[in-house]
Amino acid sequence: MTGSELPEELRLLQRSVREFVETRLQPREYLIEDRDEIPRELLDEVAAMGLFGIGYPERYGGSGFGQLGYCVAVEQLARANASLWNVIGGSVGLCGMTIQLGGPDELRARYLPALVTGKKIGAYALSEPGAGSDAGALHTTARRDGDRYVLDGAKTFITNAPIADVFAVFATVDREAGAKGITGFVVERDTAGLEVGPSDAKMGLHGSTTAQLFFREAAVPADQRIGEEGKGFELALRTLDHGRLGLAAHAVGAAQRLLEASISYAKGRTQFGRPIAANQGVQWPLADAATEIHAARLMVYDAAARLDHGERVTERAAMAKLFATEMLGRVADTAVQVHGGMGYMKELWIERAYRDARIYRIYEGTSEIQRVVIAAALLADG
Ligand SMILES: Cc1cc2nc3c(=O)[nH]c(=O)nc-3n(C[C@H](O)[C@H](O)[C@H](O)COP(=O)(O)OP(=O)(O)OC[C@H]3O[C@@H](n4cnc5c(N)ncnc54)[C@H](O)[C@@H]3O)c2cc1C
């Protein structure tokens, strides 16, 4: 399924998000980069456009477009500063999705309406200083104490932590049980014993903040538990199936914008008395980029449509994330090269997109971990 074969309602969604991005978001993308901050009124505008709730059911305030609609919208959002979608992805793609998938219904009703409409911002706290790729080895503990759990430990690199109102936090109720002790909790920002560290200084994604979380005897009501005790790791991974598809969709959109800019520059820039686009040495990387973007888009749409039909897509989401994010790295490199010295200058957004592209191969599972996931599926018995 390519863009032109999408159902009419998704093509309308695609057009309206594209127009919003071009008229409202692109003019302010330098401001976000320079201030390393997204103005709250801009997030409010994004929320009013319904962009936090594209994939969520209408009963929670979403638009009910499902995962395919979410990916179609994210692809267009990727034509603006990457940090904008990163905030949305951390909030609803990961935090909200953990609550949506894990339940129970009371918790969904308590938190999803505010997250899905962008009134509250969420964060997803799985990674720890000693448990990144091996997230199942996390150390944060949750000790049951009557009608509450008491959390102790630390989380690292948590997107949205400096601005989040609620956190989906994974901790173990039984360290001996390994990954089978991991349990999810919704923790509110003003919980006593929760401290948010200062914002991390990063290579790119300026405007999207990350920080550490510290839990010291932080008491969380027992009814804030997401799903069953010991089912948290499975839930974290199921959530990442959705998250990785969103990331892959973002990579497709970001690469498409870089390709379009490169084509336009190659046609307009003259050297040796003709446009640089007249050289095969410039044409071929553009042809490769277009081919890879097309392939990545098909992978994303296919996996998203399957997810909407209730299929488990762990392997396909890992493949889409692996291919699309590595593809973006190559296309961003091509874009800088085609733009020559201008590609290295802050005057153009290309150098920012090049830096921003680097993170995609690291978070929500590195490229190596996607290969581990794919190989495990290939080599599984039966
Ligand atoms: C900007 C940013 C935002 C983030 N946001 C969040 C967030 O919101 N929530 C959250 O929970 N986490 C978040 N993270 C954490 C992110 O998911 C981890 O950084 C990532 O999973 C890698 O873990 P690590 O950094 O500990 O690297 P490590 O696990 O230490 O890996 C280091 C290197 O070793 C390789 N490696 C490790 N194990 C294997 C293996 N078995 N086979 C082959 N290679 C291997 C890795 O691929 C990598 O190249 C974020 C990180 C960043 C940088």
Layout of secondary structure:
Layout: H1 8-25, H2 29-35, H3 40-48, H4 66-77, H5 82-102, H6 105-116, E1 122-125, E2 141-145, E3 148-159, E4 166-172, E5 182-188, E6 194-196, E7 210-221, E8 225-226, H7 232-268, E9 270-271, E10 274-275, H8 280-308, H9 314-338, H10 350-357, H11 367-379
Helix pairs in contact: 1-4, 4-7, 4-8, 5-6, 5-7, 7-8, 7-9, 8-9, 9-10, 9-11
Structural description of this entry:
The chain has 382 residues and is of the alpha+beta class. It folds into three domains: 3-116, Acyl-CoA dehydrogenase/oxidase, N-terminal domain (Butyryl-Coa Dehydrogenase, subunit A, domain 1, Orthogonal Bundle); 122-229, Butyryl-CoA Dehydrogenase, subunit A, domain 2; 233-379, Butyryl-CoA Dehydrogenase, subunit A, domain 3 (Up-down Bundle), CATH 1.20.140. Helix content is 50%, strand content 15%. It has eleven helices and ten strands. It has helices at residues 8-25, 29-35, 40-48, 66-77, 82-102, 105-116, 232-268, 280-308, 314-338, 350-357, 367-379; strands at 122-125, 141-145, 148-159, 166-172, 182-188, 194-196, 210-221, 225-226, 270-271, 274-275. A four-stranded mixed beta sheet has the order 1-4-5-8. Helix 4 packs across helix 7 (232-268), helix 7 packs parallel to helix 9 and helix 9 runs antiparallel to helix 11 (367-379). The longest helix has 37 residues, at 232-268. It is globular.
